[in-house]
Amino acid sequence: GRFGARGARAEALLAKAPWHDYYGPGSPLQKLCEWGGRILRLGSPAAARDAFAAAAQLASEHGLARWRIEALVGLGSLELLADERSPSLQEAHRLAGQVGLLGQEGRAEILLADGLLLTNGPAAMAEPATALIRRSVRLGLPAYAFTGNLVLAARAGLRGETAEMEGRLAQLNDLERVPPDNRSLVPAVRA
Known about the structure:
It contains eleven helices and no strands. It is mainly alpha-helical.
């Protein structure tokens, strides 16, 4: 089959899957959306794109904004890999802000900012990074401030502004509370 699953409901998720329509009514994807599950990984980008697009459509049809945003972020991350631009991420960002899912809005904002860096260079990073810092204060989520300051430090470093870069990195004081993969980005900015 096209799907695999782990967990308490894996058997029920994969039971009686319709082989004529992998993403339609009665499919594992429909059940997963209805049960609030998450797609962790798909083997091929094309299959992942199809699954995320189908999930976004299904969630839209059923008025499930949160799950539509999740699917659009997944689809958007694949678009960024292919083209560094993502209409799906822009839609996820807009919709998340509209329905008040500010954490999801920030997540989409981070991915969009990454795409901006690749397409427009360091100058394009100031506004998205500053918005993340503001969002951090509003939501009490230090991870956004960390990301915003790290992006601004990288921007300064890429522009040869070493003092500005070090000033931003100095604001990332409590690194012990930051996940190890994020901590490793600090020396990368200096490199």
